[in-house]
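Q: Can someone sanity-check these two? First one:
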Amino acid sequence: MADLDYNELLKRVQSVTSSQRIEEDRFKLPKVDIFYEGNTTVIKNFDKIIGVLNREANHLLKFFLGNVGTAGEISGGRVILQGKIPARTIQDKLNEYVDTYVICSECNRPDTHLVKKGRTILIRCDACGAFRSIGSMKKKKIQVPHEMLKEGGTYELTIKDIGKRGDGVAFFDKYVVYVPGAVKGSIVQVKIEKISGTVAFGRIVQ
């Protein structure tokens, strides 16, 4: 009888341990899945990202809009952003959001929720019980200002790709720059003629 009780207890312990390991490994940040439609950038799996992060959709959208510097809206589980924004920029901002608003700074687990006290937003960890202020976390990070393109300005750019219409495509900080007649891989001097959101159009100058 004692052996049976021991074996039963052993099975229960193994079952609980297995569940805990699954629980610890369950957090996997999805990679942003985007496509371009006209002059917009669509995040196709926004609803999946929200489900994994366990945060409000409008909170993450507001973070994206403020940090990418564009307008946008939620539509049917997707997010539509104005302008053609590189996928790497969106992924970097998502990673930054997770570091700031999701991951516990004490135990590095994602089992957290946001608590608002007055004007202060706190992040509380359900796993270890730690509290920290979102504001203090932001102050610790070095804020690197965006470089701004200016219409009429000339910039040295590397043509990274060729667009659907045959124009060269270059990137300057958060901007996507289209350059007619440019060859992929070339480094050219480009005069910016028009800027619309995070999309710019220029021409090669000697």
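And here is the second, same format, sequence then tokens:
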Amino acid sequence: MRQRPHMPTVSHRRGVSGVAAPYRGGSASIAANDYWWYRVRARLLETALDPYVGEAGRVLDVGSADGPSVQWLRGRAVHATLDLDRRGLKRGEGVCGSALALPFASASFDVVGAFDVLEHCQPEATAVREFVRVLRPGGRLLLSVPAYQWAWTDFDEENGHHRRYTRQRAVAALEAGGLEVLRATYTFGSTLPLFALERLARRCMQAFRSGGPVEAADVVSLPTTPRVLDGLLYRLGRLDERILKRHDLPFGSSVVLAARKLG
């Protein structure tokens, strides 16, 4: 496929604090791809989004460092991968590049998956425009983003996030890019009370901790989950999975969307 000149993503990211931090690295899945959240997310993404994949001939996985969560998309079509961090690419496979300037020809793909990518992109509209550009007419964008700006903590700063989303905010971003949203639902609803407690604890620790602004980490360290808690969180995720087969969730710590390119 024809490649466009590589352009790196913006060199700085900005959170709600307004403090810029340099881009430094990749997904936490690079170091912990068996973490409970990735295992649950894989099942939730497949349950919520697989009906919208259709007879895809070519699939692009943007942000492929999170590959453990999208194995369900592999093996069913020609699968291209892209990540800004070379550690997120398998040796001899994929393209190192930015979501803000995808190095692929227009109308190259039937499906573009961007799971927990858009919150890293600034300007947001540029990334959405690039996703749309490389989709064929009628092609589908499959997307997930973190939910709720009230949940913003130093963990978001360390991850290099620019924003968190509500379902309405995510739908508006895709519709502004010329997409028709086919499904928009929250996920991780069953674990939301525990998520909220964890975020509250983080904010309390931040309030008592001295020091300057939090910079983006190279690879973020994930919270340790004892084996019993890991099992509980996984089982709660399975409850979400059963609900998502028939209904959208009205709340949760992530937003998942499927959209179609018009024209």
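A (reply): Looked at the second one. Helices lie at 36-49, 124-134, 154-159, 167-176, 192-208, 227-244. Residues 72 and 260 are 20 Å apart (CA to CA).
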